[in-house]
């Protein structure tokens, strides 16, 4: 009888175990799990803090008993694997002080990732600082909340988990401060997209501190000191500055490691040691777009990898194709999602890229309840290769990023986005979906119908002598305007072209970029030199409101 041991449960390990059982009924399958719970919804943990998920048991997806009854899996929680002997093909674990050694024919490592804890002065003595990776972590946080009834909390790190924790602590009635070392929250997003989430956090009463890190804890964690010397009190602190692969067991077994200590695997998930495989947050994957090594700690890839490694062990060839890092987060009434690479990463890698920002409604604008979606798509300006996308809005964001993620995975390009067919009825979408519209805007650039500049290029163009032409209406200008801009409403532009100079460079803008594109085409065909401000006033207002005039 073949014997397969899996180290670590949750997404990768349990997906592998259940798939293996469906393929190999006669195999002996043992799962060693270090913690007390082998299958839990770690992505749901923050929502229990606020009470949005009201029952703790809802977080526990499966129990060892249920897994045995259905799959005849030998699940052993609270069994920490201490060592692997590849020559003898054994693992040694400890359970309540007693050591146990088991042999294996195949071994799957799914140890996951652990919270990265930076070396901060006073952190070792802090009594109110926590991380959130599993149910025991959650229990510690909830015990702290119940014991001290915190009034002030700090979240160090404004990534996806940090944002979720800030939201749910605030929903619980606690004053929350977020500290982020990067210049903006949600570093995986580009600045102009992340700012919508940052503004939402501030609007909901969360204090946001960026370009700063915590350098010391005082008074057993009750005082946090920032880089600039600022000190403030905290009753509860959540460290959410990232994760690192839990690869010490693999290293001890002589398995080769790679990027930031991640476990190296081939395209069948086999490590450098024969008959030992690895999946999940601990492994190095290929970014499917750049083909460079990456660490992508997300539930969807881990589940997929668990299933695929089981197939490979069972003799069904499944290739490890890598991941593109598709993710989403809710911040109060705002949703932000991304897929692929961001513009910053691409430019740092020396890629020639173009980007379009579109502002559309999540469903037909005339149907009640329509809300804005700001969508950014990044692509190769010649081939149209899709590199990534980001979106923010109240609703409908998930659908659009999922579609573009699918397009990237399927090898589609910018040229294909206008061709995508979406279900349409007024409550659900528009006849021209936001993804279609982004495709049209990108095509206009690639085919030379439009020349655009980005929000961060505007001041440079104006300094070089360009004139900003705003084609919004007078009533729109009452809510705010660009300083020193020339205003000619689009509907008047044909009749007022004599006010413009064909020797002058113009940057044209409206609210979203759609009317300004119409104006750009009109002026270009009349001999004027014009570039369109991508994202237009709405995007610029979000990123640089201090540069605008209020009437």
From TrEMBL:
Residues 462-548 form the Rhodanese domain. Its cofactor is FAD. PANTHER family: NAD(P)H SULFUR OXIDOREDUCTASE (COA-DEPENDENT), PYRIDINE NUCLEOTIDE-DISULFIDE OXIDOREDUCTASE DOMAIN-CONTAINING. Belongs to the class-III pyridine nucleotide-disulfide oxidoreductase family. It holds the Pfam family Rhodanese. GO terms for molecular function: oxidoreductase activity. This is NADPH-dependent 2,4-dienoyl-CoA reductase, sulfur reductase. InterPro entries: FAD-bd_OxRdtase, FAD/NAD-bd_sf, FAD/NAD-binding_dom, FAD/NAD-linked_Rdtase_dimer_sf, Pyr_nucl-diS_OxRdtase_dimer, Rhodanese-like_dom, Rhodanese-like_dom_sf. The keyword Flavoprotein applies. It comes from Alkalibacterium thalassium. Keywords: FAD, Flavoprotein, Oxidation, Oxidoreductase, Redox-active center. It comes from the Bacteria.
